[in-house]
Design a protein that fits this description.
With about 220 residues, this protein is of the alpha/beta class. The protein has one domain: Rossmann fold (3-Layer(aba) Sandwich). It is about 25% helix and about 30% strand. The strands form 3 sheets. It has an 8-stranded mixed beta sheet. A 4-stranded mixed beta sheet has the order 6-5-7-11, covered by helices on one side. A two-stranded antiparallel sheet has the order 8-10. A hairpin with a 2-residue loop joins strand 13 and strand 14.
Length: about 220
C-alpha cells in the first residue's frame, strides 16, 4: 500500500490547489505518496503525514476543525504522540498558536506557544492585507528550508501574523516594514504563512522537502 498524505478538509482552505501541488511535488520528488483530501478522522489516523490548510478567519477555521467528529483528537494523536510530519498552511499555520486575536480572542491548537496578532507595518502607506510576492529570510537551520534559492520569493495573503513566544520556533521571516513570521516549527511540526501551492517552483521544492522530511 502506498503511503498517504492527508489534507484536512475543515470547510476552509485552498484544497484543490494544495492537492494538485502536493501531487506534483510527490511526482517530481519521486516519493510515491497518494494525496487524499478528507474530513474523515479515521483516514487521518492512517496517514503518513498531515497537511492542514486554512483560509479566512482564525475562529472560523478552528470551529470548522473542532466540529468534525474526532478530528482534533485524531490529528493530535498522530502529530503529538506518534510524531507524524505535519504542515500547516496560512491560517492552518496560525491555528498552531495558543491564541488568535482576530475578532476577539480565540484558542488555537496550542502546539507552538504564541499568538496571532494583526499586522502593523511601521510604514502606514503599506496596505493590509499583506498580499503578493515577498522574500524569505531563513532564521534557523531546518531541513525544509536549507539550500532553497537564496532570498526566494513566495506568495502571501494575510492580515494577521503568528508571533511565537520562543524565538527558536521562528524558522523564517519576510519583511513588510518589519519582520513577519513566514515559517514556524518545532520537532515534527511546521507551518508556513505563505502559500507553497501558489509559490511556483520554490513552493513545489518546499512541498517536496516536506514529503521527504523524516523529523
Amino acid at each position: 500500500m502506498r503511503p498517504i498524505v492527508t489534507i484536512i478538509d475543515h470547510g476552509s482552505g485552498n484544497l484543490r490547489s494544495a492537492e494538485k501541488a502536493l501531487e506534483r511535488a510527490a511526482q517530481e520528488a519521486g516519493t510515491g505518496q497518494d494525496i487524499l483530501v478528507t474530513s474523515d478522522s479515521d483516514q487521518v489516523a492512517k496517514a503518513e503525514r498531515i497537511v492542514l490548510p486554512g483560509v479566512g478567519a482564525f475562529a472560523d477555521c478552528m470551529k470548522g476543525l473542532s466540529n468534525i467528529p474526532g478530528m482534533v483528537d485524531a490529528v493530535s494523536e498522530m502529530v503529538l504522540k506518534r510524531g507524524k510530519p505535519f504542515l500547516g498552511i496560512c491560517v492552518g499555520m496560525q491555528m498552531l498558536a495558543t491564541i488568535g486575536r482576530e475578532h476577539g480572542s480565540h484558542m488555537g491548537l496550542g502546539w507552538i506557544e504564541g499568538e496571532v496578532s494583526p499586522i502593523t507595518p511601521s510604514d502606514p502607506a503599506l496596505k493590509i492585507p499583506h498580499m503578493g510576492w515577498n522574500e524569505l529570510e531563513q532564521r534557523r537551520a531546518h531541513p525544509l528550508l536549507d539550500n532553497l534559492v537564496d532570498k526566494a520569493h513566495v506568495y502571501f495573503v494575510h492580515s494577521f501574523a503568528f508571533v511565537p513566544k520562543d524565538g527558536a520556533h521562528l524558522l523564517a521571516t519576510t519583511d513588510y516594514a518589519g519582520a513577519i513570521s513566514a515559517v514556524v516549527g518545532r520537532d515534527n511540526i511546521a507551518g508556513t504563512q505563505f502559500h507553497p501551492e501558489k509559490s511556483q517552483a520554490v513552493g513545489l521544492a518546499f512541498l517536496g522537502r516536506f514529503l521527504k522530511w523524516r523529523p
